[in-house]
């Protein structure tokens, strides 16, 4: 029998701690870089990218550019759009960001957006990794590894509708 019970996994303080830690990991991985591009998958990946940018600006001198990545996650082929010309991402460090890694489809499609241009480096970030992969992808930077069953749903709330940040299992 399915339950509508919502279990808090990370509260707003813990979410921010995960974001801070990921920002430091990104900085360490790019210590010799002058500029990076944070490519956030709409909608929560983009919100997470904005939060990471805020922390990175406090702890580094990196020039940080935000790119919005829109994907059709239900398509059987790559259907995507970004809010800047793809040529502006050439020869840069790209960090693809999403809220939850479940099957890997979103990360795989997101990586596909940048595969036809030359890059310095391509990394991925997720706040929650559920490890139910159907695609051979993994995240380079992870806030929390969470063991769940397929029937469970993970919901990430980031500054939405006045609701406090949190990660919930439903």
Tell me what you see in this structure.
By secondary structure, the protein is an alpha/beta fold. It has a domain at 34-150: Rossmann fold (3-Layer(aba) Sandwich), CATH 3.40.50.2020. It is built from three helices and nine strands; from the N terminus they run E-H-E-H-E-E-E-H-E-E-E-E. The strands form two sheets. Strands 4-3-2-5-6-7 form a six-stranded mixed beta sheet, sandwiched between helices. A three-stranded antiparallel beta sheet has the order 1-9-8. Helix 2 (44-59) links the parallel strand 2 (35-41) and strand 3 (63-71). Helix 1 (12-29) crosses helix 2 (44-59). The longest helix is centred in the N-terminal third of the chain and has 18 residues, at 12-29. It is globular and about 45 Å long. The model has no long low-confidence stretch (mean pLDDT 93).
Query: How much beta, percentage-wise?
Result: 25-35%
Biggest sheet, strands in spatial order?
A: 4-3-2-5-6-7
Radius of gyration computed on alpha carbons: 16 Å
Determine the structural class based on helices, strands and strand pairing.
Answer: alpha/beta
Major sheet attributes: 6 strands, mixed
- Give the low-confidence spans: none
Protein name: Phosphoribosyltransferase family protein
Pfam families: Pribosyltran
Keywords: Glycosyltransferase, Transferase
InterPro entries: PRTase-like, PRTase_dom, PyrR_bifunctional
Describe what is shown at a glance.
The protein has 170 residues and is α/β, with parallel strands linked by helices. It has three helices and nine strands; from the N terminus they run βαβαβββαββββ.
């Amino acid at each position: 029998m399915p339950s509508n019970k919502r279990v808090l996994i990370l509260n707003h303080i813990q979410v921010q701690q995960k974001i801070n830690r990921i920002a430091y990991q990104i900085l360490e991985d790019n210590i010799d870089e002058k500029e990076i591009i944070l490519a956030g998958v709409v909608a929560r990946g983009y919100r997470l990218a904005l939060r990471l940018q805020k922390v990175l600006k406090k702890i580094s001198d990196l020039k940080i550019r935000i790119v919005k990545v829109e994907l059709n996650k239900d398509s059987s082929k790559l259907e995507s759009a970004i809010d800047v010309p793809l040529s502006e991402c050439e020869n840069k460090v790209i960090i693809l960001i999403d809220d939850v890694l479940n099957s890997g489809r979103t990360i795989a499609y997101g990586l596909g957006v940048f595969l036809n241009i030359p890059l310095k480096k391509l990394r991925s970030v997720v706040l929650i990794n559920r490890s139910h992969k159907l695609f051979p992808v993994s995240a380079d930077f992870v806030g929390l590894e969470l063991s769940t069953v397929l029937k469970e749903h993970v919901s990430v709330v980031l500054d939405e509708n006045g609701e406090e940040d949190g990660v919930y299992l439903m």
